Amino acid sequence: MKRVLLSAFSMIDPETYREHLREAVSEPVGIEVAQLGSTDRLIEAGTGFDAVVVDVDTPVTAEAIGALGDELEVIARAAVGVDGVDVAAATDAGVRVTRVPEYCTDEVATHSLSLLFACLRSVTTYDDAVADGRWTWEDGRPIRRVSESTIGLLSFGPIARRAAEQLSGFGAELLAHDPFVDGDRMDELGVEKVAFEALFDRSDHVAVYAPLTPSTRGLVDADALSRLSSHSVVVNVGRGPVIDRDALLEVLESGTIKAAGLDVLAEEPPADDPLVGHDDAVVTPHAAWYSEEAREELNRSAAADVAAVFNDEVPDGRVDPDADWL
């Protein structure tokens, strides 16, 4: 019998795995659910599992991979990214790593624009003012026209490309920086490829879609943020640590930029994060991925990847250990 360990996480639906693996795998598959959420809890779950399905809050380190035992065949990440999973250690141990890269492309792209426009149009400022009994347009000043702005996209993967498509009707100039995507791919969507510094020098607003890797951690630092202007909005739907939190707080406090729209933070859930509740920040709880359809697709895809490994097939969500972006 194959044994599968599922994280007891709200995104993960055990019944989907039971149904799919029962139908797709010829031998019996046992599903076990455990409250993970940390490396220690993953190690405490024991050995003898052929597959582990983890959430974004459960780091899978080299120590954890060793502790899980020789039976382990696949680590399935129920997420787009694999930050927190030691892909190299898994590869060395003969364990495949999978992810679900495009289950929420439309949702995250839409959410990024929701945050952008909420900040641009001072939506929460107006809402607070009306709740306090004020009824005046001046509370949201200054607001600038979107069609006369330049919007920069940091990273140009599937989510950023979808956002570019959605933005195409607003008349803004679009720029993007991504060292792994050539300019021709960007040109197809009316986006100009620029260097990192130029993205911040030329953009009125910047939306961050970058995954968390050693090269992107802290990439958006004090220097980058200082290149923006007092009417600028910074959005992050990638990973929290891509932006230097202290640097972002500084430019908000000093008025160097107008606002920040954040779906991801340096620590999740946050513990006394000064960005939470800040007058110039709109923060959502890493919910950009969510729709009922996206949750269903996430579970079906991750379960299919586990089944593929059990059937000695190449899973659709296989992570290439030699990928440049890791």
TrEMBL record:
Protein's recorded name: C-terminal binding protein
Q: Where is the D-isomer specific 2-hydroxyacid dehydrogenase NAD-binding domain?
A: 113-288
SUPFAM superfamilies per record: Formate/glycerate dehydrogenase catalytic domain-like (SSF52283), NAD(P)-binding Rossmann-fold domains (SSF51735)
Q: Coiled-coil intervals in this record? A: none
Top-level taxon = Archaea
Q: Does the keyword Methyltransferase apply?
A: no
Q: Where is the D-isomer specific 2-hydroxyacid dehydrogenase catalytic domain?
A: 28-319
Q: Which UniProt keywords apply?
A: NAD, Oxidoreductase
Please name the GO terms that the record assigns under molecular function.
Answer: oxidoreductase activity
The text of the family note is: Belongs to the D-isomer specific 2-hydroxyacid dehydrogenase family.
Give the classification, highest ranks: Archaea, Methanobacteriati, Methanobacteriota, Stenosarchaea group, Halobacteria
Q: Which InterPro entries does its entry note? A: CtBP, D-iso_2-hydroxyacid_DH_PdxB, D-isomer_2_OHA_DH_cat_dom, D-isomer_DH_NAD-bd, NAD(P)-bd_dom_sf
Q: Pfam families under this entry?
A: 2-Hacid_dh, 2-Hacid_dh_C
